[in-house]
Design a protein that fits this description.
The chain contains ten helices and four strands. By secondary structure, it is mostly helical. Helix 5 crosses helix 6.
């Protein structure tokens, strides 16, 4: 069976288009299923600017379907995994909109922090989305889905979900390790520190709505509990500067 997205019978009028070479400006013709073309002006291999490679993040047949992916896209393939994880966590949590909102905000701030800290976005964002996975199992086995119960039940559920999305084993292992302990160990990876600070930031933002901390107390919490400079700076901006506006 051919992927509908690549089947010419379903193509629309814009399936073939022209785009300027980003190197020399020569106009290039692309077909929508064409990953790259070589520019006749400068000889550079140019990536199709409209190609949607989202499916390549999870489909085990991506290379067969799309052809040999350029190195630039292969490097991004793990990062695109986060988008599939975001969809799956919403399916898993169903109508638990509070946890869905929490996970989405943690991922949003984790993305900002990892861009500054230089971690691996695929690991950081998947872990950020999956911090609360295992909530259903925790309620069934422990009667509550507190952090301790989530640490026990989450990794197994996350491992199964990531495996169905064809995530690489090293990514699965690190994501499961991160969500298995919310209290940092003496030596933590930059990926862990990014997720920790994003989760800590969202928790403090939620606490501020119910029982606000005084500015001096908040400064102390940020300085004492955040693990990255980027996380501390973001927390100061969102919890102190913007709170005054």
């Amino acid at each position: 069976m051919k992927c509908p997205g690549q089947d010419t019978r379903y193509w629309k009028h814009d399936a073939i288009f022209d785009s300027p070479c980003p190197k020399c400006g020569q106009m290039l013709e692309f077909f929508k299923d064409q990953t790259t073309t070589r520019c006749k002006g400068c000889g550079e291999q140019i990536i199709n600017p409209k190609m949607d490679f989202g499916c390549a993040s999870y489909c085990q047949y991506a290379e067969q379907c799309l052809g040999e992916l350029p190195p630039e896209l292969l490097a991004k393939r793990d990062d695109l995994l986060k988008d599939r994880v975001a969809v799956q966590i919403k399916h898993y949590l169903k109508k638990d909109f509070k946890r869905i909102g929490h996970a989405t905000r943690v991922a949003r701030y984790a993305e900002k922090i990892v861009q500054q800290e230089g971690g691996i976005p695929a690991v950081v964002l998947c872990a950020a989305y999956l911090m609360d996975i295992g909530a259903r199992e925790a309620l069934e086995k422990h009667g509550q889905a507190d952090p301790a119960a989530l640490e026990k039940e989450g990794p197994a559920v996350a491992r199964k979900l990531l495996a169905t999305l064809s995530a690489k084993e090293p990514i699965i292992n690190e994501v499961c390790d991160i969500i298995a302990h919310r209290q940092p160990r003496p030596q933590e990876t930059v990926n862990y520190r990014c997720v920790h600070d994003a989760e800590r930031l969202v928790t403090l933002m939620e606490q501020q709505k119910d029982k606000p901390h005084a500015p001096e107390a908040m400064i102390g919490l940020i300085d004492e509990t955040f693990l990255t400079a980027s996380g501390r700076q973001l927390a100061r901006t969102l919890l102190l500067t913007e709170a005054k506006d």
